[in-house]
Design brief:
By secondary structure, the protein is mainly alpha-helical. Helices cover 76% and strands 0% of the residues. The chain folds into two domains: 6-81; 86-146, no CATH class. The protein is built from seven helices and no strands.
Length: 147
């Protein structure tokens, strides 16, 4: 992981901020259609997710800025020892692409049964019983709804 610098913090915050704002104000409204008979509008959940990403990015930017101030712009040993997060990003994007194809051919339940444990493994979970229990608890109750 590259050392934390003020420029890196600013670039990350601006990138995530601009992408989140464009999703919230442009992408989501243009890709969803209001339904006067729906209890919840189709754009509600994506809008909440975009706002959550913006809030979490702001919190991370504040934490990074405070970290820079506390150590006087010197890279921390812990930051240099962490593995690159790009590996997790690439694996997550690839897994999501596979899940989209699986969704088309196998349905929602099979996709969830694949995606949940795969993402848990990518995020570093190695307790296989926990992975199995979470997958079962997330997939089985909703299988009748999506089958």
């Amino acid at each position: 992981m590259p050392p934390l610098t003020p420029v890196r913090v600013a670039v990350e915050w601006l990138t995530v901020g601009l992408l989140g704002l464009s999703a919230y104000f442009w992408l989501i409204p243009n890709q969803t259609t209001a339904d006067p008979f729906a209890a919840l509008q189709p754009g509600l959940l994506p809008s909440i997710c975009a706002l959550a990403v913006l809030i979490l990015a702001a919190v991370q930017a504040v934490r990074d800025t405070r970290s820079l101030q506390s150590r006087g712009n010197q890279p921390a040993e812990a930051a240099r020892a962490q593995p690159s997060s790009w590996r997790a990003v690439v694996l997550t994007m690839g897994t999501t692409a596979v899940a989209l194809v699986l969704l088309e051919f196998a349905g929602m339940a099979a996709t969830a049964a694949f995606l949940i444990p795969a993402l848990m493994l990518i995020l570093g979970e190695r307790r296989y019983l926990r992975i199995a229990v979470v997958t079962i608890c997330c997939v089985l109750p909703f299988t009748p709804l999506f089958s």
